[in-house]
Amino acid sequence: MIRWDDSLILGVAEIDSQHKKLFEETYELLDMCSKGTGKSVIEGKIAFLKKYVIEHFESEERLHRKYNYPNTSEHKNAYKIFIEKVKTVEKDFAKSRQTSSVLINVNRIMNRWFLEHIKRTDKAFVEYMKSKK
């Protein structure tokens, strides 16, 4: 299972705390799935994650506007893709009620997409933002 570690710190408290919270909540979801927690509780956690991801991306977009970040449209497209992936997990679980599919899909999304997003896309934005201060 994925876990937060300090190599993911970008140096912007607001972004770092949100990223860390996303990892913690995701880990909790994966742990619930592996332990066979009730399906309604898992649905609630998935819904919370979807909402939190949207709030996080809105927060990043506010910072983009504040610093007139030239690559905002790329970020927005990436955000849409990530949100759709989370919605797909939510829909698939609602249909199948299979926690194994949640484990696989959420791990894939977080490991392949979100980690890379932080390490590349968000890091580039933070470097740009720091150059403008």
Name its key features:
133 residues, mainly alpha, 4 helices
Overview of this protein structure:
- By secondary structure, this protein is mainly alpha-helical.
- 83% of the residues lie in helices and 0% in strands.
- The chain is built from four helices and no strands.
- It has helices at 13-35, 39-66, 72-96, 99-132.
- Helix 1 (13-35) runs antiparallel to helix 4.
- The protein is elongated.
Intertermini distance: 37 Å
Largest sheet, in brief, is:
none
Q: What is the alpha-carbon Rg in Å?
A: 15 Å
Residues in β-strands, percent? under 5%
- Compressed to H and E, one letter per element, the order equals HHHH
What structural class do you assign from the helix and strand content?
A: mainly alpha
- What is the number of E strands? 0
Tell the overall outline.
elongated
Helix share, percent: over 70%
Averaged pLDDT: 88
How many helix segments?
A: 4
Low-confidence stretches: none
